[in-house]
Design a protein that fits this description.
By secondary structure, the chain is α/β, with parallel strands linked by helices. It is built from 10 helices and 16 strands. The chain has one domain: 3-Layer(aba) Sandwich (Rossmann fold). β6 and β7 form a beta hairpin. α1 packs across α7. The longest helix has 22 residues. Bound molecules: nicotinamide-adenine-dinucleotide and zinc ion. Nicotinamide-adenine-dinucleotide binds next to α1, α3, β5 and β10.
C-alpha cells in the first residue's frame, strides 16, 4: 500500500514511516519541516521520498497524492502557542491544512484516511461520584490548588471522586485552542467521509513518549522535562503531589496502531468515521514516571514540589479496548522497559521552545 504520511518527518510520523516500511508498505512523506520543530534537517529512511511542502498548499498536496492509496495525517502544530496571538497559526495549520488535504483527496479519489487525534478533545478525565455517578468537574480553582486540594470535587455534593477511564463516547470538552483544532480535524474528516464515501479513522493518542521525542518544550510532555533535568544532573521536579494519573503510550505502539488502522480501512463501510482511544490501558502517576526515569539514569530521587499550573488536568486516562478489539492491536512496550529506553535515547532539540505555561498533556 502506498501511504502518504503528512508530518512524516516529525516525532510520531517518523516512527509510522519506519513501521510502514517494516510491514512492506510504501510510505511517502509530505512535511513542511517547520523550523521550530526541525532546526536541523531530519534524515528519512533511505528510499523514502520526502516532499518538503506545506499541507495548506493545494498544488503540492495534489502532487503528493499521485499514486497514493491512503493518507496518514500527522502534520500539525502541536501543544499550546506562546499566547492567544498564535491562534490563527494553529487553526490555519491544523484545520485549514486538513481541509486542503481532504479536498485534494476528494479530487484525487483517495478514500482512506487515518488521522492523528488526541485525548485533549476530552478535557478532564472521567470521574464518578459514589452518590451522583459519572460527573464532569469543571477546571480546578486556583484557591484549591494553592491549598493543595488537587483532586477535583463532585460539582453536586463537593464529595470525593473516583477517577475512571475515558471511553470514546465521553462528551467532547476541548479546553484550549490546540484541543479545538484537534476536534475540528475530526469533524472535518467525518464530513469528508460522509460527502465523498471515504473511510476515516481518528486515533486519539494519549501521552506518547519514546525515542526522537523533542525536548524542553511543554508539548514534549512531562517525561521530556524530567529527562532533561536528569541529563543536567538535577532531580526531576514533580508538580502537585505526584499522584496525577496519565496513560503513557510508547511511540512504536502508536506507530503500529496507525499501520493496522490503515490496513483495516479498506474493509470499513464507505462514508464512515470512527474514533479510537490509543493508549496503553495502564495508568501510571507522574510521580511513578519520575522515579522510573531517575532509577534508569542513576540520577537523584525526584522531588515532589506541590507546585501547580492552572489549566493542568488532574487525571486523564482512557480505555483503548475498542481499538484492541477492532484491530487486534496490543501495546507491546511496557512502562518500565519503555521509560528505561527513553531515559537513555537521544531527543530532538527544538530551535525555540514554546511557553512553559502549557499543560503537560496533549
Ligand atoms: N506527541 C504526542 O504525545 C501527541 C499526542 C496526541 C496527538 N498528537 C498528534 O500527533 C501528530 C504528530 O505529533 P508529533 O508529536 O509527532 O509532533 P511533531 O511536531 O514532532 O511532528 C509534526 C510534523 O508535522 C510537520 N508540520 C506541521 N505543520 C505542517 C504543515 N502545515 N504542513 C506540513 N507539515 C507540517 C512538522 O514539520 C513536523 O515534522 C500531531 O497531529 C499531534 O497533534 C501528538
Ligand atoms: Zn456527588
Amino acid at each position: 500500500m502506498r501511504v502518504l504520511v503528512t508530518g512524516g518527518a516529525g516525532f510520531i510520523g517518523s516512527h509510522i514511516v519506519a513501521a510502514l516500511l517494516e510491514r512492506g508498505h510504501d510510505p511517502v512523506v509530505l512535511d513542511a519541516l517547520l523550523p521550530a520543530v526541525h532546526p536541523v534537517r531530519p534524515t528519512l529512511p533511505e528510499g523514502v521520498a520526502c516532499l518538503e511542502a506545506d499541507v495548506r498548499n493545494p498544488a503540492e498536496v495534489a502532487r503528493a497524492l499521485g499514486g497514493v492509496d491512503a493518507v496518514c495525517h500527522q502534520a500539525a502544530m502541536v501543544g499550546l502557542g506562546k499566547d492567544f496571538a498564535d491562534t490563527p497559526a494553529y487553526v490555519s495549520c491544523n484545520d485549514h491544512g486538513t481541509a486542503v488535504l481532504l479536498a485534494a483527496m476528494a479530487e484525487a479519489g483517495v478514500d482512506r484516511l487515518v488521522l492523528a487525534g488526541s485525548m485533549v478533545v476530552y478535557g478532564e478525565g472521567r470521574y464518578d461520584c459514589p452518590e451522583h455517578g459519572p460527573v464532569r468537574p469543571g477546571p480546578r480553582r486556583a484557591g484549591d490548588l494553592a491549598a493543595r486540594r488537587f483532586e477535583p470535587r463532585c460539582p453536586h455534593c463537593g464529595g470525593e471522586l473516583v477517577p475512571g477511564l475515558v471511553s470514546e463516547d465521553a462528551a467532547m470538552d476541548p479546553r484550549n485552542v490546540y484541543a479545538v483544532t484537534k476536534l475540528a480535524q475530526e469533524h472535518l474528516a467525518r464530513s469528508w467521509a460522509r460527502a465523498t464515501g471515504g473511510r476515516a479513522v481518528s486515533l486519539r493518542y494519549h501521552n506518547v513518549y519514546g525515542p526522537g521525542m523533542p525536548r524542553d518544550t511543554p508539548y514534549a510532555g512531562v517525561a521530556s522535562f524530567f529527562r532533561s533535568a536528569l541529563a543536567r544532573g538535577e532531580a526531576p521536579r514533580v508538580f502537585e503531589d505526584g499522584r496525577q494519573r496519565r496513560d503513557f503510550v510508547h511511540v512504536r505502539d502508536v506507530a503500529m496502531a496507525n499501520v493496522l488502522a490503515l490496513e483495516a480501512l479498506g474493509s470499513h463501510a464507505a462514508g464512515g468515521f470512527e474514533a479510537f482511544n490509543c493508549g496503553s490501558d495502564a495508568p501510571r502517576t507522574i510521580g511513578e514516571m519520575a522515579r522510573v526515569l531517575s532509577a534508569a539514569c542513576g540520577g537523584p530521587e525526584p522531588v515532589v514540589t506541590g507546585e501547580y499550573r492552572l489549566g493542568d488536568v488532574r487525571h486523564i486516562t482512557a480505555t483503548s479496548r475498542r481499538l484492541r478489539q477492532a484491530l487486534g492491536w496490543q501495546p507491546r512496550v511496557g512502562f518500565e522497559e519503555g521509560m528505561t529506553e527513553f531515559a537513555c535515547a537521544p531527543q530532538r532539540r527544538l530551535s525555540h521552545p514554546v511557553s512553559t505555561a502549557a499543560p503537560a498533556t496533549q
